[in-house]
Specification:
Length: 604
């Protein structure tokens, strides 16, 4: 979810062994006066209580929401005061937080159970690590029970949720094997490196986000991950759906002072320390937009929806792709500073915001139209999300990364259009949202948009000084600096490259996720600016001017933004010097395909 989310490209690579994570196990088995076992509880016990319900203390979404105070910070001594007692359902009846839909373990107990009570009364204070387990169970169970209610429960078996997972500043979903060798889906919820008492389990939206990854994975395919490349729209869609579903499933609990469109204002917004805010959200503009939260300047037309001088950004496809949602941004040039210092725009969490905003906005629109049917609207969207994912194209040699925002939302609209629970007025509103977000009924970028402005080559193994030139015996990453001559931005660009001459080859799959053969490889570029967005973000005032261009390598401000989009090539030690040809085919999600023959120069 955060800095190093689960590896999404091939599900077979997700297998890790879920043993030996900690050595803090308490072996005592003597019951205390309340019927609790000292932390940690043993797995094996005789009999059980047979009770499917219980109770436990939990926050309502997170500590801030529980006390209706958006200014509450993790170091406050009053953080734990907002917890209340809630009913826990679907328990297995053995006195632990094992249930029909989730199985909560503790990273402090070698992935054994921590919380145990003979009467299923899990009443722990926030300073007790078992509180994290109760939070994890409550939100994990409620969300996955909703999946079951909608007829969309995937995976069918309980997902392990590991509270107090031994990582810091992160949470993720993956698959692993238990001690019997059985593959299990699991979620790892870590802790804060800056606040010793803070855990990602304290944020119910984080738990739902990670469990939605498990659902997305199984709904799409048991063989292939939804995302293939480090930066592609499929990976961003994966993250966006997790954000949106977490917002949707907690919408009914949001306190009056909190923003229902803000995802993880607690974990992402505060656990990384003062001066940091990585929260994401679903509104049509970012927090640093001059009209936030109403976003009155929003438009899919970049000449209206974007302005560096007016501090205006619109989360519409494709120009809103890659802008941060939040952040500590200094005035007066907030948009410029967010652009320069807001992190890699192509990174999947950052690129997810249009997808999460669009899906959640659909939910909100239907919820407002049918205010007494929130649970039904959730069921409709969960079921159709599941069916849409199942019907999306799977990777092939022709296209290793076939899923884009446009293909998903087009598919979702089609599914909703044949769902008898969705009326024509509902469907009209969904179409309006997709149109306004630039994901439906848009004008495609016309043929002839692409030409080649140059290449970039960066050595990773060299026989000569690091000079960016292709010398015999070297290996390096290659980018095609494609020029976009259209006024519209092109996005989600599949780059298919074929080497036509001898002497150079593509490295294998260990270096190129898009490797097909030593002569063919693929990658995706996030977007290439059109002239309209370049003009909208320019200014004669140097304080506001954002220096970008209409080439791939001038679309983003920092060299590191390209780290996941290079193609690794090898130059033979015996290669002849001179020109080598590479044919590239460029297929954007929102425009016409173009084919270009590229010449590269091999030197001695």
């Amino acid at each position: 979810m955060f800095k190093s989310s689960w590896a999404s490209w091939v599900s077979a690579t997700l297998v890790v062994f879920l043993v030996g994570c900690s050595s803090k196990k308490n072996s005592s088995k003597e019951l205390d006066a309340q019927g609790d076992l000292p932390y940690c509880a043993p797995v094996s016990r005789s009999g059980g209580n047979g009770l499917s319900t219980g109770s436990g203390r939990s926050f309502s979404i997170d500590p801030r929401n529980s006390v209706n105070d958006p200014s509450l910070f993790p170091t406050s001594s009053s953080v734990g005061q907002g917890a209340s007692t809630y009913t826990l359902n679907h328990l297995s009846g053995n006195g632990t937080l094992s249930g029909t839909y989730v199985d909560v373990r503790s990273g402090l107990c070698e992935l054994d159970y921590g919380a145990y009570n003979a009467r299923n009364v899990f009443d722990y204070g926030h300073d007790d690590p078992r509180f994290r387990e109760v939070m994890s169970y409550r939100y994990g169970d409620e969300y996955r029970a909703s999946l079951a209610r909608s007829g969309s429960l995937l995976p069918a078996k309980p997902v392990w949720v590991i509270a107090s997972c031994p990582i810091q500043d992160n949470a993720y979903y993956s698959q692993g094997r238990d001690t019997q060798g059985t593959i299990v889906d699991f979620v790892c919820l870590g802790s804060s490196s800056t606040v010793s008492t803070a855990s990602f389990s304290d944020d119910g939206q984080v738990t739902i986000h990670e469990l939605q990854h498990a659902h997305t994975q199984h709904a799409y395919s048991d063989l292939y991950g939804l995302g293939h490349f480090g930066f592609d729209e499929a990976g961003a869609l994966n993250e966006g759906l997790s954000d949106a579903v977490a917002l949707m499933m907690t919408r009914h609990e949001v306190a009056p002072a909190l923003d229902p469109y803000l995802f993880s204002g607690w974990a992402l917004g505060s656990l990384f320390g003062p001066g940091s805010d990585y929260a994401r959200g679903a509104r049509r503009c970012p927090t640093y937009d001059s009209s936030y939260p109403n976003c009155t300047g929003f438009s899919a037309d970049p000449t209206i929806g974007f302005s560096s001088e007016a501090n205006r950004v619109s989360f519409a496809y494709p120009d809103g792709f890659g802008w941060p949602y939040a952040g500590v941004v200094s005035p007066p040039a907030k948009v410029k500073n967010a652009f320069l210092f807001g992190g890699p725009p192509q990174e999947v969490h950052q690129a997810a915001i249009i997808a999460s905003g669009t899906f959640f906005e659909i939910f909100e629109a239907l919820r407002e139209r049918r205010p007494n049917e929130e649970s039904l609207i959730q069921d409709i969207l969960l079921a159709n999300l599941t069916d849409t994912l199942a019907g999306l194209p799977k990777p092939s040699e022709t296209n290793l990364s076939p899923v884009t925002f446009i293909s998903f939302f087009g598919g979702l609209y089609t599914k909703l259009s044949v769902d008898t629970r969705v009326n024509s007025q509902d469907l009209d509103r969904v179409r309006d949202i997709l149109r306004e977000r630039g994901l439906m009924d848009f004008t495609p970028v016309a043929a002839g948009w692409a030409s080649l402005a140059g290449i970039r080559f960066t050595e990773v193994r060299n026989s000569k000084p690091l000079d960016g030139e292709m010398n015999r015996g070297e290996e390096g990453d290659l980018w095609f600096d494609v020029q976009n001559s259209a006024s519209q931005t092109v996005a989600g660009i599949l780059v298919e490259a074929e080497i036509l001459d001898s002497g150079i080859t593509f490295a294998g799959a260990e270096a190129n996720y898009g490797a097909i053969s030593d002569r063919k490889a693929q990658i995706r570029y996030g977007k290439i600016n059109g002239s309209s967005i370049v003009a909208a973000l320019s200014s004669t005032d140097s304080r506001y001017n954002i220096s970008i261009g209409t080439r791939y390598l001038t679309t983003y401000p920092m060299r590191s933004d390209y780290s996941e989009t290079g193609l690794r090539i090898k130059i033979s030690k015996t290669a002849t010097t001179g020109t080598k040809r590479i044919r590239i085919r460029l297929t954007p999600a929102n425009g016409a395909s173009e084919t270009i023959e590229v010449s590269v120069e091999v030197k001695s």
